[in-house]
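<context>
A single protein, sequence plus fold
<entry> Chain with its tokenised backbone below
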Amino acid sequence: MSTVSEASKSRNQDHVIDTALPDALRDLLRLNASFLTALSLHFAHNGVFTPVELGQLTPTIQISWGKRRVEIDDLRQILGVLQLETPEPPTAIGTRAAALALSNYGHGKVCVEARDDGIEDFCSGGTINEVALNDLFLRNISYLWHDFRRSCRSASQHERRQSELAADTEEFGFIHTAIVGEFMTALPMAPVTDALSLQHLENSRSSVQKRRQEFQTVPKGKKLMLEVNPDRPAKGSADRKRNLLARIRAKEVLAAKAPAGPTQSELQRKSSLEKIMAIVPLVTHLSNATENQARQSTGPKGSQRTSIPLPNLLQHLQGSLRNPISREEGELCIRLLAQEVAPEWIELVTMGTVIVVVVKKRNRPTDSVINERVRQRI
């Protein structure tokens, strides 16, 4: 990484940040840039307040960085530098970079998430401001590095470090690897705090565990006594039986006062009346067919009365109706026709042991009349 500012050449001024960094710190700058790019992509697709698990974030960072496997301590180190508040003049986003934090959601799930405090300082267009955060990271890491080198030069007991830093020229020369390693070890690490959901879960677990221990501490043979209210009388089995008997009697009284429903015979009569209009066309057709047969046997002069044995008529009804009908229900329909609905058209005549249905063709009422009579009786 090239030198960011020529002003770093003046080492005598403490307020100037030395931006000439060794290779290890330059790699850290590239790692921070890769981290911010991966985080920005996640926030752009899922929203700024959606936590991202490290297991989903680190593969993208590794591909972009191209150095080695990224560990959680690497991200803690990056966030620790970003969260650092230095006395240097603030950048475009100020010093409130602590809105990015690591949260523990339990079961080994650690996520990077944005906190509400200070989020407006580093967000733009629905995601994070990578340029501003990269500038903040460079400012903080340069400040820490400059402060670390100055402390090494000013400490009289660190003569070895001074000799190693003597080769550092105005254009930034060689620095001993041990010095850089010591600086990297001293970098701040961001803490991993428990998420609110995990805290609530732990509180509930501790409450359950506490109650379990309370029950386990009860000595053997000692029964737990329930608190009894002396003002409230205890209800025994006799009270329950009396209450049940009272409810049964109340239901019986209510049923006795209710109006009686239709009887079985009334229900059968209503059902037969509803099927009369389906039977009338069949009776008419069967009487006409019987009359035609009689004309063929006796001559063109026919009678206006047709006799059909009741068993034969019921057999035809059972085989011709779309909806099945029983023999008893069919006989009830014929009797209702002969006795109530159309007695001028249908007549039942008993001849010995045989019941004959006499159909008077001339006296047949119209369908509308039959339908009206049925409606009145239902």
In short: Residues 1-19, 91-96, 166-174 have pLDDT under 50 and may be disordered.
